[in-house]
Structure formats: C-alpha cells, structure tokens
Amino acid sequence: MDLIHRRSNASSRVSNTQSGSSPYANTVFDNSVYLMKLQVGTPPFEIQAIIDTGSEITWTQCLPCVHCYEQNAPIFDPSKSSTFKEKRCDGHSCPYEVDYFDHTYTMGTLATETITLHSTSGEPFVMPETIIGCGHNNSWFKPSFSGMVGLNWGPSSLITQMGGEYPGLMSYCFSGQGTSKINFGANAVVAGDGVVSTTMFMTTAKPGFYYLNLDAVSVGNNRIETMGTTFHALEGNIVIDSGTTLTYFPVSYCNLVRQAVEHVVTAVRAADPTGNDMLCYNSDTIDIFPVITMHFSGGVDLVLDKYNMYMESNNGGLFCLAIICNSPTQEAIFGNRAQNNFLVGYDSSSLLVSFSPTNCSALWN
C-alpha cells in the first residue's frame, strides 16, 4: 500500500480523445447498491462494479481464483489482456487487501491496466496504466457485480487517476428504479436553481473520506441539534458514502432521532427482521411516518423523501427507519438510500458537495 500512496497523479497518461470532453459511465440499481459499467483490459472487457466513494482501490475478480464468490458474468482473465501488467515490489508481486465496513473483503495483487469509459465526445475515454486490484480471494458479494470502483480522494482512486482539466469533479443521481449515469469532469458540475452546497472536509487523519458537517436532524418540526452531544463537530462528522446503503449515527445521537420518530408514530412496534436493531413498525402505508430533514453546515437543509428514510419489508406490512445506531468509534455515514433523488456533485478543488432535488429515474430517460 505504501507504493500506492507514493504514486504521483496519472493525468499525463490519460488518453482523452477529444479535449474538453467529459467521461461518464452508465449505472444500474441493484437492490441496495449502485453499479457502474466500465471496461478493463485490451480488448475491452465490460464489468459491473459498486460505485464506492468510501474506498480507494478499484478492483475486479480475476482468474485464477483462490476463492472467488459466484458471479453471473464471466470473471476477468488477465492472461487475455495485452495491456495487463502486474505491479512488482522488490521483485515480487504487490499484494493488497481491503476490508469493508460490512466485513466483506478482497485480497489480491496490484496491477496496471487500461480502463475505458464513455465520454461526451462520443469517443471512448481511455485510461492506460491505471492501477487496479486483481482480486483472487474475495469474500461473499452479490453475483450481479464483479468488484468495486474506488472513488474517494486517495491517490489511487479512479477519479484521482483520471486527472485531466477538471480533477475531482464527479456527480451521480441515484434512484430505486431505472438506470442513470455517473459523470466526471466538466459535465459533472451541479449548478442552477434549487442547488445547495455544503463544505466538504478532507482530513489527513482519516485520509480518503469525504466528510460533511451535520448540524442537526429534524423529525417533522422537531429539530435535534448535534450541539451539546459528542456527535457535534465543526470540521466534518459524517462521511457521505455511495457504497453504503443505510445511514449510520453514533448511538447516543441516534437514540435521540429514534425517540423523536417514536413520539410521532402510533403504529405497533415490530422486531427488525434484518437483525440490525432498526426501529420497525407494522404498517401497510409509509404515510404514517414523519418527514426527516438533514441540516448540514452552511444552511443546507435536505428534506428527504419518505422512501429515503423508511424501508418496506419484502413481504410488505412492515417499515423500518433506515438509520442504524453504531458505536462512537465507528464512522457516521450518510448512505446512498438517503441520497436518492438528489443530483449529488463532488468538487474536491472547491471543497464542496452540492445537492439538487431531481427525479433521477427520469433524468436521462
């Protein structure tokens, strides 16, 4: 991993076929995560991988497998790519290991390979010699995807290795239905009427994460301040993460939010069928639940759709608050479900994250 962190910006190697064009990729919703379609290798081999702003390494399952999980699509075979080159460390292959928040993991070797995306010019956006992970030993993931696309601000994330005219610009629009796109570069700028922006915090103490500062949460008209709690901060207290489904608060503050919901909802409490101790109720309708608003620094008030904050069971008749209480030592996370139907833009150079309320499923139809 030291090799990764010493690596310089790769912008000089990006083969953008038309100056001023912006790369993008098609995205797909898969139950609880959002997948990005991209191509690796020469000839290009398409994979679907999780869009993850909370991690750095872009990796895919690779043959030969020591332990690969079952995957619907064919697994990438590096021996069939003319541009695959294994990284060497002191004469040996360079191993990597990534452990994720949900206890899944990937282990393998680092390599350089050509990554190909779409671009607004209509020509391919080609990234030769991009550092990727070739995963030979991977714990259980779903068979519909082959790996992760690391999009945090670390030096080896895909967005950092893009370089280009507009480094650190990225936007996506998540919806629980249909397909969408993730944009990079100039086409990723989120601006115009209704757009609100909050400060992004990047700390070297916990490098890579995009932190926001959550000032308060409102349950209906009941505003619950972080001020006066251990959750309060001035320079970032919650990670915005596209690769995590739910939202996580430290347990002391989380309980205040849960109590405010309990005060409003009169339905019968139910056990959490997932075993995560979520706040659940027996109900045939989402209408009984209060609207939740996230208040971020700079006066940014995100009024969330009820879909964003309450999850219905597969069989119906039960809804759970999509916020999990975690220990104070774990990161607070603003997950992808809470971000639904917002066009979300990251601008690492200006240190801003912008939100625009959007019907995401209709945006590119």
Poorly predicted tracts of residues: 1-18
Beta content comes to: 35-45%
Which overall shape is indicated by the principal axes computed on the Cα atoms?
globular
Largest sheet: 15 strands, mixed
**First-to-last CA distance:** 41 Å
Number of strands: 30
Describe this structure in words.
There is one protein chain. This protein is mostly beta strands. Helices cover 9% and strands 40% of the residues. It is built from five helices and 30 strands. The chain has helices at residues 2-6, 158-162, 251-264, 306-309, 360-363; strands spanning 15-16, 23-30, 33-40, 45-52, 59-61, 85-86, 88-89, 92-93, 95-99, 105-119, 125-138, 147-150, 169-173, 179-184, 196-199, 211-212, 214-219, 222-225, 238-240, 247-250, 269-270, 280-282, 292-296, 300-304, 310-312, 318-321, 323-326, 333-334, 342-347, 352-357. The strands form six sheets. The protein has a 15-stranded mixed beta sheet that branches. Strands 18-17-23-24 form a four-stranded antiparallel beta sheet. It has a four-stranded antiparallel beta sheet with strand order 21-22-26-25. β23 and β24 (300-304) form a beta hairpin. It is globular and about 60 Å long. This is Xylanase inhibitor N-terminal. Keywords: Aspartyl protease, Carbohydrate metabolism, Glycoprotein, Glycosidase, Hydrolase, Polysaccharide degradation, Protease, Xylan degradation. Residues 34-356 form the Peptidase A1 domain.
